[in-house]
Amino acid sequence: MSFTITGPHLGQAAVCIPIVRSLPEWFGIEADIVHYAAAIDHLPTFLAGNPAGAGGFLSLKQHNPYAAEVYVMGVRRECQRTGIGRRLLQDAEAWLRSQNVEYLQAKTLGPSDDDENYARTRAFYLAMGFRPLEECMQIWDAQNPCLILIKRL
Known about the structure:
Layout: E1 4-9, H1 13-21, H2 30-40, E2 45-50, E3 53-64, E4 67-75, H3 84-98, E5 103-109, H4 116-127, E6 131-141, E7 144-152
């Protein structure tokens, strides 16, 4: 599959939210989708696409001069396992390094929940060089344990 990565862009919720909605296994809570829609428009966002449309995106949130977060990322189901996620993350990391950011974190459903979709998400981040820092029940709630992963850029 041929695709191009562009970004970072602002104001991309209209492109990203249809991707989020196409992935209910990961994004099944409507209040969270509404929150993502409001946030994405103000966050640096990388897009993966081709003439047929957007296949994926990654939005970053910078917490301080040294650390940023993969705030939200989605790749259409039919585009998964084609290298889009890897390229989105690599391009985002290169841009963050150019901004002198030293650390990148990601939050995802922790391993104490045995959801197979999130097991794939965790495997992706580990393959991309992230390391688990801590699983917390206080960030989201006890039914949604949050795994914080971190990577030195």
